[in-house]
Amino acid sequence: MNVTYLLNSGFLIRAGHLLLVFDDFRDPSDAVSAAAAKAGSDKIYFFASHWHYDHYDPSIGAFGREAARYILSDDIRVRADTSPLPPEKITYVKTYDHWQDGQIDVVTYSSTDEGTSFQVTTEAGTIFHAGDFNWWDWTGDTHENRQLAANGFHKQLKRMAGMQADLAFFPVDGRLGSSMEKGVREFVRTAEIRSLVTMHSVGYPAWQPSMDFFPPGRSIPVWSPRSPGEEKVFSFPAE
């Protein structure tokens, strides 16, 4: 899979003859336009995990002709403008939904903020995009709110036990300070993932896992992109 960083939680992924675009709200390097112009017979799927402006932008409707499908969290239907998108190409999904079309297989999970997270299986491998699912443990918040955040995160994480993904995108948000890797640390111990890409960290230095981040005897490749347009190729040999 070839992955291009767009911005924030936005990524373009080439998986074989498919192009998958997640949470594109800005694309300073114009990577999506360039890929769409060269797509030919390749199918392009757009995903948006929730209605927040930094995860969904109606301007993705500009690719209505090229898009095979827009797969949007159901909250976008009522909280955002979808009029620029061709309605016949929109599929709205709720948490714990399943959708497939012969090219991709999509399973949704819940979030600890708004909307959904996505597990997408293709012939080239399986992708998990967390959206805003994270352990949002804000320093300085009340004890009650921090406990609610912890409970909500661990409740959802239990549903991901054993979930498999070749490539996982997960927030490591610098605004959380000393708590920034709490959520992802638990996630890599719960789900069975082979590579990790961090997101939702605009304006902060590239994150490096702490010394005890991985369980003993296990580690996986980690990529923390910072500049729009950065690319990385992930290969997944048979196990």
Walk me through this protein's architecture.
The structure is a single chain. The protein has helices at residues 31-37, 75-79, 143-158, 182-190; strands spanning 2-7, 10-15, 18-22, 43-48, 67-73, 90-93, 98-100, 105-109, 117-122, 125-129, 164-165, 167-171, 192-193, 196-199, 222-223, 231-233. With 239 residues, the chain is of the alpha/beta class. The strands form three sheets. It has a seven-stranded mixed beta sheet with strand order 6-5-4-3-2-1-16. Strands 7-8-9-10-12-14-15 form a seven-stranded mixed beta sheet, with no helix packed on it. A two-stranded parallel ribbon has the order 11-13. Strand 7 and strand 8 (105-109) form a beta hairpin. Keywords: Hydrolase. InterPro entries: RibonucZ/Hydroxyglut_hydro. One of its GO terms (molecular function) is hydrolase activity.
Secondary-structure blueprint:
Blueprint: E1 2-7, E2 10-15, E3 18-22, H1 31-37, E4 43-48, E5 67-73, H2 75-79, E6 90-93, E7 98-100, E8 105-109, E9 117-122, E10 125-129, H3 143-158, E11 164-165, E12 167-171, H4 182-190, E13 192-193, E14 196-199, E15 222-223, E16 231-233
Parallel strand pairs: 3-4, 4-5, 5-6, 10-12, 11-13, 12-14, 14-15
Antiparallel strand pairs: 1-2, 1-16, 2-3, 7-8, 8-9, 9-10
